[in-house]
Amino acid sequence: MNILVCIKQVPETNKVAVDPDTGVLLRGGVASKMNPYDLYALETALRLRELHGGSITVISMGPPQAEQVIREAFAMGADEGVLLSDRRFGGADVLATSYTLSQGIRSAGAFDLILCGKQTTDGDTAQVGPEIGEWLGIPSVSNVRRVIESSPEGLTVEMDMPKAVEIVKLGFPCLLAVDKDIYQPRLPSYVRKKATSDRKIRILTLADMEDQEESHYGLSGSPTQVQRIFSPESEITQEIWRGSGPELCDRLYDKLTELKFV
To answer: Please, which residues have CB within 8 angstroms of residue 218's CB and are 6 or more apart in sequence?
Structure first.
């Protein structure tokens, strides 16, 4: 089974500055990590490989420092890594991001199964995975919380929908966007990290894409227009009350009434 896992480097903190003109996160100097949901996708790939054999390729889109998460994936057991890195890819919204990834996947090779995390912690749109499936013209399923059955021909999976649990059977090739806790991600291996420290990561730029029209990538290919970016205001006030139980109950009731909560 030839499996591809989409991974992303995200900030470790939510205190990240935003460019007020473009709406792009200013990631410079901010500590980063692998998107937590992508860890679940990678663990799913590793378990399927244990059952059926094959290889696992990880693909990421970002600046050169995004190689760090690919190295982490190597330490967990991934076989190959691809990084889509080109300044012309910068500032992409979900549409341009999914299109760039789909083009990168086409350039990287043919895959039976593509796995994505349900969403990223810096965007939280949960749209990129399904959109990749649409660009590639393959069936996709989101909110996958369990793989019920797997075979060399396809998968049967369980989807966690808002008001129901659905079971879907898919043939290969297909794409799954997995939810958290589908499996417990394993820790990176120090021994494997040392063994793969010089493993080559394939770098793809716009020149390697089948579609080399610049207007389809980055800010130019992003129909989403950011009107305003601002930090949320914090209006936390604290009061300390002292008194007997009945007195505090009466005071709390009066306060809730004043705030129109009751």
So the answer is: 87, 88, 89, 90, 91, 92, 96
